[in-house]
Amino acid sequence: MIKLLIVDDSALMRRQLKTIFQAEGDFQIEVARNGEEAVELNNRFAPDVITLDINMPQMDGLTALSLLMAERPVPVVMVSSLTEKGALSTFEALNLGAVDYIPKPDGTISLSIAEIEAEIVAKVRVAAGAHLKKSRGLAARIRGDLSAANATRPAAPPQRPTLSVDQSASRDGLVIIGVSTGGPRTLEEILPRLPADFPWPVLVAQHMPPSFTRPFAERMNALCALEVYELRRPMPLEPGQVCIGRGGADMVVMRRANRLMVSSRPESGDHLWHPSVELLGESVLQHCDPQRIIAVMLTGMGYDGAESFAALHRRGARTIAESKQSAVVFGMPAELIDRGGATKVLSMERIAEQIIQWVNAG
């Protein structure tokens, strides 16, 4: 049995979620109305996983999450509204240690929640077995600084070793990254390590809802030496820029007038996850020299991108799969490894350094 704690101030939402998981047959469930009850039940009920609302009276979700991670760390899935404000609060929660998030239905909950029922169950099951990472900034929040924290302003990046690029390094390569569950925090450990003079473009396909990718790109732009932007229209690939695929669309590489471009297209029904890592890899395979490609597969459930990244590897691309030791969910990297498509298997702390070594090697 999986012990699940549902935390939400809405009685209707608690009832709907409890009904969904009771129907699964292998969940033991408790509910809490606010953050204070959640902290108490985390110690007394000892859940394997928690769903946690962000906006609640008495003690909000972010404050509760800080205390949960300090007193008894447990995988947490945030229940978040699909708004810009909801996105910013969600990224703050992920930075504190939450594993994933699910959209909180708007409008009639009883009707809307049925549309995301399978997603909710899948994410909670994955989170129950997720690898927890140490939460940054936790001590400051426990001291009471959370009330003064501004969720619209990203936390200062931690001190990282200085990495450098050989100025003679070729500028005609491309880095592509595929990532899903646990991705925002993992990318915050990797992209800020790339120096301002990094000579290759970087494309990131992060599974994320449409309203989340622009705030996420803005957050990453504040943390990185490189320019980070959300893909909104066809753009030429420029050295030293990081492009985040837009949620609700797919990202593909193309050639126009013999120049490499990146563009969005409507979600393809042939792919389960979006922005599709597989479709990005296929377009790179079609339009780029694989020997000038570095492909990185990070944390996430499922197998998105495994086939195309393995094909790139067979054609000469250098590839990295995040290790089981650091991945929040060792699904996507494991699929790449199983297909023999990983040149290196590395923890997230070593990935930026390896990328730079390969770029310097030409």
The fourth-level CATH homologous superfamily of the largest domain is: Methylesterase CheB, C-terminal domain
How far apart the termini lie comes to: 52 Å
Question: What is the arithmetic mean of pLDDT?
Answer: 89
User: What global shape is seen?
Assistant: elongated
Number of strands: 15
Strand content: 15-25%
Strand order of the largest sheet: 8-10-7-6-13-14-15
Annotation field: number of helices: 13
CATH topology label of the largest domain: Rossmann fold
Give me the CATH architecture of the largest domain, please. Answer: 3-Layer(aba) Sandwich
How large, in whole angstroms, is the Cα Rg? Answer: 20 Å
CATH class of the largest domain: Alpha Beta
What's the order of the H and E elements? EHEHEHEHEHHHEHEHEEEEEHEHEHEH
| Poorly predicted regions | 135-158
Mind describing the biggest β-sheet? 7 strands, parallel
Number of domains: 2
Q: How much helix is in the residues?
A: 25-40%
Structural class: alpha/beta
